[in-house]
Each structure stands twice: as C-alpha cells, then as structure tokens.
Amino acid sequence: MHPVLFTLAGQAVESAELLYLVAVVIAAGYSTRAFRHEGWDADAVIPGVLLTAAAALLGARLHGLLIHRGLSFFGGLALGSAAALGYFRARGLPVARAADAVAPIAPFLYAVARLGCFLNGDDYGPATNLPWAIRFPQGSPPTLERVHPTPLYEIALMLPAFLWLRTRRRARLPAGSVAFELCILMGAERFVVEFWRLGLPGPAGLTAPQWLSLGLVAIGALGRARSLGRLRAA
C-alpha cells in the first residue's frame, strides 16, 4: 500500500490523484482514436474529456458529502455521464453512437481508479480470514484487521467487462447498445461487490448502493431492449 507515491515541490502526490490523472490521459487517447475511426473531429476530444473528468469528480464529491463518504461512484457516474452526453449533443454528434464509441474504455478507467483506492487503503470491506485478505495500517481509515480488498475485486471484474465491450463495439449493433450494456455490467459489478463492502443494509436487506446498482442495471436492460426492438422493427 502506497498512499503517497512521491513528493513534488514539497507537495505529496497521492496514488489516487495520480491514477485519476492517468485515467484521464487514457480516456483522451482512446476517445481520440475512436473519434478518428468514426470520422469525427478529433480536436473535440480533449475539451470533452476534461469536462467529463471535472464533472465526474464534482459529482463524486457532492454525492460523497451527502452520504458522508469521501467520493461516490454513483455521483461521479451520474454527473460525468450527463456532461459527456451534453457535450456530444452540443458538438452536433450522434449522441447514441458517440456514447457507444467511448463506452468500452469506461470499465478500464474505473479499474485504474480502483487501483488508486487500493493503494490509498480505502473502500475496503469487512474483516475476513480468506487467504487474500489484507491489512491497511496506513489506510483511510487504518485497520490492523485482515479485510476484504474490495478494490481488487472490482478490478478483477472490470477488466473482463472492458474486453467484452471492445468485442461488442466491433459488432454491428443498434446505436446505444454498447452504452446500455455498459450500464448493465457496471451496475451488476457494483451490486455483487457490495456484498463484501462495509455498508448498512436497507430494504430487503440490500444496501443503498445495491439499490442504485439495480437501477443502473434496469436502465441498461430497458435501453438495450428498446434498441433490440428497433432493430427487429427495421
């Protein structure tokens, strides 16, 4: 665990901060290539990525304040997605196709961000005796108990999702299909991992993030069903 990677000009550079920046750079590179492949203006990518990254960070912080956590996945996802879709529309791009073009990289970016969480020693789960349990003596908060390293669980699930969506991007699917499949995969991933996270159960024994995850899955499933229906109608 390395919460602080190095010091630059007297300022500590944390793992999570640096990896968030790395994720932004990866997003810019992937999106530029995707835009060029589609024949769109690649110069539009950098402003869009910066806007989306800033909106995602703001959303994560605002929702995190509301639920008394550091950063919120769902807040970042909601505001970041809204910013990206709004930007596509403002640039005159076909919104559904543009969303499909950039959707496959999202799980990989999330995995990079979760690596930052792991190195920072936060967002871990309850105590366990499993062989891969880890202590976070310098974590946020610190713990000397061996706990579930839930960020690693999420990384392990997000990388196959990334590979799957890349193959789906190459298939000739109705516009919006890949983005909706992304919603299903990310919602399902978070729902499952939440069983090994620290959270208070609510209605039906599920945590608030699990209910939000089910909502995300529902959005993806309904959208995917509509796109499939349009394909059959055609």
Tell me what you see in this structure.
This protein has 234 residues and is mainly alpha-helical. It has one domain. It contains 8 helices and 4 strands; from the N terminus they run ββαααααββααα. It has helices at 15-38, 45-66, 73-90, 95-102, 105-120, 150-170, 177-193, 208-233, and strands at residues 4-8, 11-14, 134-136, 143-147. The strands form 2 sheets. A two-stranded antiparallel ribbon has the order 1-2. Helix 6 (150-170) packs antiparallel against helix 7 and helix 7 runs antiparallel to helix 8. The chain is globular, with a radius of gyration of 18 Å. The model has no long low-confidence stretch (mean pLDDT 91).
For the structure shown, list the relevant keywords:
234 residues; mainly alpha; two-stranded antiparallel sheet; two-stranded antiparallel ribbon; 8 helices; 65% helix
* SSE topology string: EEHHHHHEEHHH
Class per helix and strand makeup: mainly alpha
What integer value in Å does the Rg equal? Answer: 18 Å
How widely separated are the two ends? Answer: 54 Å
Contiguous helical run count: 8
Q: Main beta sheet, described? A: 2 strands, antiparallel
Strand order of the largest sheet: 1-2
Query: Into which percent range does the helicity of residues fall?
Result: 55-70%
Oligomer, anyone? Answer: single chain
Low-confidence stretches: none
Hey, roughly how much beta strand do the residues contain?
A: 5-15%
**How many domains comprise the coordinates?**
1
Categorize the overall geometry: globular
Tell me the total number of β-strands. 4
Overall mean pLDDT: 91
